[in-house]
Specification:
The protein is built from no helices and five strands. The protein is mostly beta strands. A five-stranded mixed barrel has the order 1-2-3-5-4. The protein has a single domain, classed as OB fold (Dihydrolipoamide Acetyltransferase, E2P) (Beta Barrel).
């Protein structure tokens, strides 16, 4: 399923450590392993276009796995 979602990038200590995107509504997406390096910065406010990967399971299991196709910074 393709989605567009806006939120804040966070580093999670779950499992071996993983990156997450947390929306303003409190929904947490686990960022898939091959995300752009520029995206992986704690506190970054972004709008992400991607695909929820229902065929992937992770150790962290903090939310649906989101494979990022593109992103843009959100101005505060």
């Amino acid at each position: 399923m393709s989605i567009s979602v806006e939120g804040t990038v966070q580093r999670s200590g779950m499992g071996a450590g993983t990156w997450a995107l947390v929306t303003d509504k409190g929904v947490t997406y686990e960022i898939f392993k091959d995300a752009p390096h520029d995206l992986l910065q704690p506190g970054l406010q972004v709008k992400v276009k991607g695909q929820v990967r229902e065929d992937v399971m992770t150790i962290a299991m903090i939310g649906p796995v989101l494979e990022v196709k593109s992103f843009e910074l959100v101005k505060p």
